[in-house]
TrEMBL record:
It holds the Pfam family DUF779. It comes from Hymenobacter caeli. This is DUF779 domain-containing protein. InterPro entries: DUF779 (IPR008497).
Length: 130
């Protein structure tokens, strides 16, 4: 099995379950821009418009995870783990009313992992396959 580019902690998965019960299918986007810096943002699936400037990295707990292409250039050699912490972020992400916010923990891939990476799709490729 290819090395996944993005993972989620059990705490993040529990929060995703709460949000999915309330909002239905979800998606994540990591922009690296404004609105709480580079925190991953959770949206109702389809609420955030994906395009050619986005990259699909895989799924976490049944949710598609995207990142801006420019951010991916910096993080392509790291495995991202989505976690959750107490506190209120300054974004439009769905978890904010719960008094928590998603965050990213990262580590460099090992040389062995780098040889067997999960494929990524640009936003347009993803939309063609979805």
């Amino acid at each position: 099995m290819p090395t996944p580019r993005v993972l989620a902690t059990q705490a993040a998965e529990a929060t995703i379950d709460l949000l999915r019960d309330e909002h239905g299918p979800l998606m994540f986007h990591q922009s690296g821009g404004c609105c709480d810096g580079s925190s991953p943002m959770c949206f109702t699936k389809g609420e955030f418009r994906i395009g050619g400037n986005d990259v699909w990295l895989g799924q976490i707990h049944g949710c598609d995870f995207f990142m801006s292409t420019s951010q991916f250039e910096y993080w392509q050699h790291t495995q991202l783990t989505i976690d959750v912490t107490k506190g209120r972020g300054a974004s439009f992400s769905l978890e904010i009313p719960l008094g928590v916010r998603f965050l990213i923990r990262s580590r460099l891939f090992t040389e062995a992992e780098s040889k067997d990476m999960a494929a990524v799709l640009n936003g347009e490729e993803y939309l063609e396959t979805a």
